[in-house]
Every structure is written in structure tokens, then in C-alpha cells.
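B., you asked whether I could sanity-check this one before it goes into the benchmark set. Here's the sequence:
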Amino acid sequence: MRYQDQVAGIPWERIEAIRNALKGWTALHFIGGEFRPSESGEVFPTLDPSTNEVLSHAARGGEREVDRAAKAAHEAFQRWSRTPARERKRYLLRIAELLEKHADELAVVEALDAGQVLRIVKAQVARSAENFAFYAEYAEHAMEDRTFPVDRDWLYYSLRVPAGPVGIITPWNAPLMLSTWRIAPALAFGDTVVLKPAEWSPLTASKLAEIVQEADLPPGVFNLVQGYGEEAGAALVAHPLVPLITLTGETETGKIVMQNAARHLKRLSLELGGKSPALVFADADLERALDAVVFQIYSFNGERCTASSRLLVEESIFETFVERVAERARAIRVGHPLDPETEVGPLIHPEHLERVLGYVEAGLKEGARLLVGGRRATTSFRGEDLSQGNYLEPALFVGENHMKIAQEEIFGPVLVAIPFKDEEEALRKANDTRYGLAAYVFTRDLERAHRLALELEAGLVYLNSHNVRHLPTPFGGVKASGERREGGLYALEFYTDLKAVGLPLRPPHVPKFGKR
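And here's what the prediction gave me:
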């Protein structure tokens, strides 16, 4: 169906051309600077979440493809790690320019492949280009560290050196942006890369490889292996030539990766699940809180790790505020991701839709009160038939913090509202979860806001705001949400090794062992 002459600034004829081109296309591996099929010749389908029809195919890689990619990255590391930072900077800026040049194609491909709303995906593509431009500027200066003069006798100094090939395993919900968030600092700091994208949304990874090839990045510096997590992903985690692994995914996957990486003592950066609370106090700017709460859970189809999926509201305003959230949830426009008026599109895959529906059923069995949604959406806000896609009506429960829907990551447009009496109870309920990625506080009492920011068990705390990322600041969680920080100079701790050098300024005394 044609919606408008342009969607998100992209001509409809261009959108149709991109969609048609995907039908006969196979997303290949990119190893040593060349696109290659799997040695077995096997491929796997990727589905259009709006219809569950086959959108395209991707090569099915495994141990052999990972081994070739790891060896290519290992060999290229010997040269790339010694490439002057100003040259690495030029490559990264070139990739940023090409991401902007191909932004329309990338956005349409990802909207179709992941089911995300096109105008939101286009903003994610812009952030992908920003990731490279940002770290390009860091490339020349980030490796500088400190000097430690000791009286007039010694000069110690520390410096950072590239750590080695990095295995990057990315999720399906924002595949391009989240992969570039890791690829850019790795390349900027002198590491090489083997990327394993999620099998449910693999297409923009191969489009990124085309951009890397167009940028003339030296062969082997960036490599891509398509495939399933238990095959290609597991082989990458286990490969001895890839000493660093970064994963964005669910917590249980993180545990498996940690166990499998232990044999080689690999360095890990794990950004895992979340069950983030939004605390709304009676003295808050309730209009701002309402906007932020609704956007933070229902945008991105609810498929975001930082979603505020637990809404904790002070008792005195609970019923009124929750009813306003319900009104907004009922009015959310569910429809095709290419429709410019759509606010919530389809979930990524039929299996994931069934998983989310399972949580809705669990909430009802536990006695939670379902105020809005929670059923398959079969008709769009325009009256279109959605019955073949993975559409879900945005859901709002009233429940308690001990319930399954309040304790486990659903990763869909499902919100549970929970009352609290006072600040002490709000804090206790907010921290009563195994996760600790993000938290959101809405209050006009700045002393309370800062007290809670200190006491909330979360790596990210936003005060009177939804999640607005700032690249120089640290990103990451605590508890079952992860154990490292990405962003700005904090990424150095993962992608580089810190080395100390000692230089005596006058001959030091050395004990003369064995001299008679």
C-alpha cells in the first residue's frame, strides 16, 4: 500500500525499489575484504515482521567461516594496530560520510527487516554515522594517558595499546546502530573486528560491509559472519584468535557467553537485559512524566533494553495517572512500519510475539489487572489487515512488584503499573529486581532526585527525562544487566590494554645477586 509520496523524507518509489531489490538478494559473509557465501552453500531466510513472508536470505555460517574471519582479523591486526591514528581517523570519517550517503537505503532495509517504524530507524541510521564521526575525533588523542615522576630519579608513564581482534555479537532490535556503537571505537583504537549480527535482522550488517568496502578499509580489518547464535556466535566466542567479545543481548545468553569464554580468559563487555523502573512522585511535572513514560515503553515497539517497563506511581495520584497512561496507550497508532503515522509496528518474529503473549497470559493468571491491549492486533489504525504480521496491541497492567510481568524482561510493548506509599517504598520496589540497567525519576524535589540517583541500583539514572543518549558518557548496567561501560573514553577500558613503562633518570641501584 502506498501511504504518501514521501515517508521520512524518502520518495515512495525509492522505498519500493529497495524493497523489491531485497527479494532476490542474499546477505553474504564479508571476510578478508571479500564477500563470500558459506562453504556449505546454505542460507537461511529472514522474515518481514509485518507479514511473516520471506523478505530475503542470509548465508548460514559456522565454525569454518568464523575461523577464516578470525584469522583474517588476526593478520590484519598486525598492520592496523600500527596504522597512525590520523589515518584511522580518515577511514572512520569516510565510513561516516558513506553511512549518511546511503542512509535512505539502510533505513528502509532495517525497517523492513526488524519491523521498526521507518522514521525512528532513520534517526538510528543518523546515530550510526555519528558513532563513527565521534570516535574518529577520539582516535588521535585517546591513547594518551599519564606520567608519574618520582622525585628526580624515575619517570614512569602509562600508555594504551590496541588489545586485539574484537568479536562483536549484536541484537536484533537496533542492529545497525548497536553494531556501529562497538565497531567504531574498536577501529578507532586500533583493533580489528569480526561481527556476528542477529539472525532475525541480518540485512543491514551486509549493507554496512558494502560501505566498508566502498571506504577502502584494509582487508581483514572488518569482517562479518552471518549465521545462527548457537553456530556462528558460539564459534566466535570460542575462537582463540579473538581475545575480546562484546555482546548486546539477553541475560541468559550473556551467562552462556561468559561460561564459553572462560576457557580462553577472554575479556568481555556484556550489555544485557533490563527491567527499568520509572518512579513518578505526586509533585512531579505530570505532563512531562506522562510523555516520557509512554514513549519510553511503547516506542521501538517496546523492544528496547532501557524501556521503563515498570511504572511506580505514588499512591495519591496512582489511579489518575495510570488512567491517563491507559488513555494514551489506547490511542497509540499500530500499523505498518512504512506508514508515516505508525507509532508501534510489528514485533520482530512470530516466536517473539508468542513469547510476549505468554507474559500477558502469565500476568492475568497471577491476578494483574489488564487495563489496555495485550492482544494480537489484526487491524491497523487505518483499517488495514494486520492478521498475518506480529502485531500486538500496546498493553498496560496494574500489578505488584513480585509478579512475573514485573520481574522478567518481556521486551515488548507491555507496561506494569505499581503503587508506592513513600520514597522509601519506591526505592525498595525499584531495586527489587535482578536487573540494573536504567531508572527514571520524576519529581520537582531535587534533593529527593539526587538521593534516589545515588541509591537506585542502575547504571543509568535519568531525572525528569526519558533516555537521551550522550556518547561521551558511560553506558552500561549493574547486577544482571551487565558489567562494563561503553561510551566516550570509558570504551578504552575494554578496547585497549594499559601499559606502564618505567625509565630511571639516573642509574638505579641493582642488588648484585651471585657476585662474590
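One thing to flag: The mean pLDDT is 96. Otherwise nothing jumped out at me.
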